[in-house]
Amino acid sequence: MAQVMPELRRVLDGDTAPDGLTESDLLELYRRMVLLRTYDERSVVFHRQGRIGTYAIFWNHEAIQVGATYPLTDDDWIFPSYRESAIGLVRGMPVETVLQWWRGQPSGWWNPADWNVASICVPIATHVPHAAGLAWGKKLKGEDAVAMAFFGDGATSEGSFHEGINFAAVMNAPAVFVCNNNGWAISTPVEAQTRAETLADKAIGYGVPGVRVDGLDVLAVWEAASEAVERARGGGGPTFIEAVHYRVAPHATADDPRAYIDPARVEEERARECLGRYDAFLRRMGVLSDVVADDVRASAERALRAGIAAAEAEPPPDPSLLFEHAYVDPPPNLRRG
Ligand SMILES: Cc1ncc(C[n+]2csc(CCOP(=O)(O)OP(=O)(O)O)c2C)c(N)n1
Ligand SMILES: [Mg+2]
User: Fold this and answer.
1) Residues with Cβ < 8 Å from 179, sequence gap 6 or more?
2) Running DSSP on this structure, what letter comes out for residue 154?
3) What number of CA atoms fall less than 13 Å from residue 68's CA on the CB side?
4) Residue of the nearest CA to atom 11 in ligand 1?
5) How far apart are the first and last CA of the chain?
6) Which residue in the list 48, 260, 302, 335 is annotated as catalytic?
7) Are 215 and 244 in contact (CB under 8 A)?
């Protein structure tokens, strides 16, 4: 019978990188984490300045997003939720494309086939069956692409989660399900969400392996994802990865967590944030210096400055676009003279 190990897998506490990662891989993981961190921090500022709309903060989720996607090739598909809105950046998607999504500009809706990154999914878990279906379709076509879906702890209570993972398991589809367990679904704690001891335990019911990793350990996430991707590509079927951490920022810019979160716990968790931990590991290994770190940070900041400038240089869209694909026969109140 399938079993889930309740302990979290960790790598960063030790002094060796996993086999299969060169020094340049380790630095590339760092560069991607810094790019996402900078995107996120600048986005909160852009929101306060009224330059983007409501924004779902992903501060301290970078290790999950970067570690999980690193084993993918560009032919593999990523299915993000709103929490992974900027995940296309790891594939080279322009910063302004993602910023335009949060500005409500049509150019923010990229063509998924251009990047093999599906549209950002806001309804909870509805993209899980999409990922399962795409993975199954790739298998039927004899292509070896894998689909990776990201969703939260709260999503595992949704029917779509059940349907998607069950379908992928039954069809032996090459899918990887990455659950970002940040402990909260807005103001609902994970304890109020399920009686399962761990979210990975749910995998047992679908007959797929469930793996628990420290979600703040980019190398542990990478390791678990590499195994899952290899398994999927080799015909072994889907894997469920539960990346465990704690949400240390508001759910989104419209949320005030002081109403429901213990601020002392948040402070404690913030002190263990994932980029600082990885930075310290790389320095211990002699892979990262101040010069390289400053250069990586400066280049991410330049990318964000250029991204917001490019987004703001775009003319506002024609408001009629809102209705263009909504009705075959527009109702009389929308028809002009
Ligand atoms: C089907 C559906 N129901 C409710 C919502 C409202 N909603 C937006 S975010 C959210 C919480 C989801 O929490 P979780 O899955 O843990 O993801 P997280 O936001 O923590 O990354 C809810 C209920 C929604 N977007 N879609
Ligand atoms: Mg959550």
Assistant:
1) 151, 152, 153, 155, 156, 199, 200, 240, 241, 242, 243
2) G
3) 35
4) 185
5) 68
6) 260
7) yes
Could you list the beta-strand ranges (E) of the chain: 77-79, 147-152, 175-181, 184-185, 188-189, 210-214, 239-244
Give ion ligand 2 contacts, CB < 5 A: 152-153, 182, 184-185
Q: What is the pTM of this model?
A: 0.96
Ligand 2: centre distance to CA 223 (Å): 22
Per-residue pLDDT tens for 241-254? 999 999 999 999 99
- Residue 197 has a pLDDT of 95
Q: Which amino acids bring their CB within 6 angstroms of ligand 1?
A: 83, 122-124, 151-155, 180, 182, 184-186, 251
Quick check: 266 pLDDT over 90? yes
pLDDT of residue 326: 87
Question: For ligand 1, atom 24, which residue shows the shortest CA distance?
Answer: 123
Active-site annotation holder among 31, 42, 61, 251: 251
H, E, C per residue of 249-271: CCCCCCCCHHHCCCHHHHHHHHC
Q: What pLDDT, in 10s, does the model give residues 143-186?
A: 999 999 999 999 999 999 999 999 999 999 999 999 999 999 99
What spacing in Å lies between the alpha carbon of 237 and ligand 2's midpoint?
Answer: 25
